[in-house]
Specification:
Structural class: mainly alpha
Largest sheet: none
Shape: globular
Number of helices: 4
Radius of gyration: 16 Å
Mean pLDDT: 84
Oligomer: single chain
Length: 123
């Protein structure tokens, strides 16, 4: 039972870590691309909302047999960029650039979490 509790706590930690890193990178991307309404708070909100709509689209379209996963990815990407566009009040191109940094943040957070998890098994 403790294994499952530890796994749940780990998932929550990874999500919070991912939101913070993604939010920071989104904020930096918004500042670099000169988004007028760039703030760290907006970046955190956009990061959480973007992750939510991406997962929701992946789950809903994943239920379709065949090419559901592909459509889930495409719809999730478009919805994420739209959420970022609305959150920052910017153009589609700038929102796409910010989204790329969001993905980099998520990959970085997952890689760090995997390294930390692997290191705990080595002791």
């Amino acid at each position: 039972m403790a294994l499952f509790a530890g796994f749940g706590i780990g998932i929550i930690f990874i999500f919070v870590f991912m939101v913070i890193i993604s939010g920071l990178l989104m904020w930096l991307a918004a500042r670099i691309s000169k988004v007028e309404e760039a703030s760290f708070t907006r970046a955190l909100v956009a990061s959480v909302a973007s992750a939510f709509v991406s997962v929701l689209a992946a789950v809903l379209f994943g239920l379709l047999p065949g090419i559901g996963n592909f459509f889930g990815f495409i719809v999730g990407l478009l919805l994420s960029v739209f959420v970022i566009k609305v959150s920052f009040g910017t153009s589609f191109g700038k929102a796409l650039l910010v989204w790329i940094f969001d993905i980099l943040g998520a990959v970085l957070a997952i890689a760090i979490a995997a390294i930390v998890t692997a290191s705990t098994f080595l002791h």
